[in-house]
């Protein structure tokens, strides 16, 4: 085997060495100028791949933050709207108490009715509140158009009953604003569990003062009717119109049946009826409209005045239950806002951890890089000196 040494081979080796050292020095200069250890993925393929995954996790945290900001804005606006609704309900309650005062005449009740109409219109506007971007707060997921509208003297709901869930941190979701069906439509009547009312056709002066479930274990959810057969006697019928009990009436004494009890004052007439049973639901707009209609009756007889008073008492109970529903709705929104704050803390903690890991993968160790730069620069200068010497050398000179 023959090994040949030529001037061109020595020259090429020197050039190759010189270029390699220049490339290393240029790479180190890039690291120093950028402050990054990973200039390209080939510097450390494993670390570069891990860093890309961490970048995606950070981007996801930013997206969760944007989600949280959006739903926080909507929940804050919902809180404002529900606060206004609560204030309106408190005013309705106050006006109903005033209307129930026997000293108020027809003109005073008409003035109250006028204010109630304005409050009802305001409630409709609040139910159609938007989040500032054209989306309606109380439309559920069908929030592209106004969820409530007047129709046939009543108010109809065109939204859906879905409450959107929004991810605000990894595997942490909060609920968006409540659908309008839960806030404005499904208002329980009575005390929320039991409801009682006087028949609109009653001709006596029997006034329903109170009702309650006195023995929840004995009550099976049955509805009962107390029908007066005479001014001082009554019979109780169940939902199938079967007589289940009879009794004598004394004003102020409780009438009990199946775990329920109601108390009457005044003097019912034969044929008068009162009902007690499970509470139903009614939308808030119907409750206010019924109150407006009641105030428009202008009673002239004792029986008519009693009928109005029974209606006003019923309205007071329904409004009181509606106020509790608004408090519950606000509490629900408040819980979601608290969860958003918790999610923000979690995102911040995760972000700090991820950025710390990224820093350990990407950021340059300045002391090591500067030392390496000095070493590589010295090495390059030495290679350049050798190359200059190689240029002046030749095998022909050595053979001379």
TrEMBL record:
GO terms for cellular component: bacterial-type flagellum hook; extracellular region. It is found in: Bacterial flagellum; Secreted. Belongs to the bacterial flagellin family. Residues 198-278 form the Flagellar hook-associated protein 1 D2-like domain. Signal peptide: none annotated. The keyword RNA-binding does not apply. The keyword Signal does not apply. Residues 5-141 form the Flagellin N-terminal domain. InterPro entries: Flagell_FlgL, Flagellin, Flagellin_N, FlgK_D2-like. This is Flagellar hook protein FlgL. GO terms for molecular function: structural molecule activity. Keywords: Bacterial flagellum, Cell projection, Cilium, Flagellum, Secreted. One of its GO terms (biological process) is bacterial-type flagellum-dependent cell motility. PANTHER family: FLAGELLAR HOOK-ASSOCIATED PROTEIN 3, FLAGELLIN.
């Amino acid at each position: 085997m023959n090994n040949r040494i030529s001037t061109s081979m020595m020259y090429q080796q020197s050039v190759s060495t010189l270029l390699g050292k220049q490339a290393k020095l240029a790479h180190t200069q890039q690291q120093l100028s950028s402050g990054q250890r990973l200039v390209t993925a080939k510097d450390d393929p494993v670390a570069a791949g891990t860093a890309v995954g961490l970048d995606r996790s950070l981007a996801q945290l930013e997206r969760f933050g944007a989600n949280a900001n959006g739903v926080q804005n909507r929940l804050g606006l919902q809180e404002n709207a529900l606060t206004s609704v609560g204030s309106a309900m408190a005013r309705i309650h106050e006006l109903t108490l005033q209307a129930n005062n026997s000293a108020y005449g027809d003109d005073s009740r008409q003035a109250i009715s006028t204010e109630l109409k304005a409050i009802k219109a305001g409630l409709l506007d609040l139910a159609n509140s938007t989040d500032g971007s054209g989306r309606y707060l109380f439309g559920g997921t069908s929030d592209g158009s106004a969820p409530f509208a007047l129709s046939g003297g009543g108010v109809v709901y065109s939204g859906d009953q879905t409450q959107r869930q929004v991810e605000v941190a990894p595997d942490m979701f909060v609920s968006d604003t409540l659908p309008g069906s839960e806030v404005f439509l499904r208002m329980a009547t009575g005390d929320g569990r039991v409801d009682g009312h006087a028949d609109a056709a009653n001709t006596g002066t029997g006034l329903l003062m109170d009702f309650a479930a006195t023995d929840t274990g004995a009550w099976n959810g049955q509805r009962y009717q107390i029908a007066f057969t005479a001014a001082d006697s009554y019979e109780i019928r169940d939902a199938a119109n079967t007589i289940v009990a009879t009794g004598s009436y004394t004003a102020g004494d409780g009438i009990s049946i199946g775990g329920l009890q109601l108390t009457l004052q005044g003097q019912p007439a034969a044929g008068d009826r009162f009902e007690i049973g499970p509470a139903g639901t009614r939308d808030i707009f119907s409750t206010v409209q019924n109150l407006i209609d009641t105030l428009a009756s202008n009673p002239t007889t004792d029986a008519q005045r009693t009928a109005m008073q029974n209606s006003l008492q019923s309205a007071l109970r329904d409004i009181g239950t509606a106020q509790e529903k608004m408090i519950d709705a606000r509490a629900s929104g408040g819980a979601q806002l608290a969860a958003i704050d918790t999610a923000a803390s979690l995102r911040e903690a995760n972000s700090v951890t991820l950025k710390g890991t990224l820093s350990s993968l990407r950021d340059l160790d300045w002391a090591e890089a500067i030392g390496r730069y000095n070493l590589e620069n010295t090495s390059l200068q030495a290679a350049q000196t050798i190359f200059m010497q190689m240029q002046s050398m030749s095998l022909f000179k050595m053979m001379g």
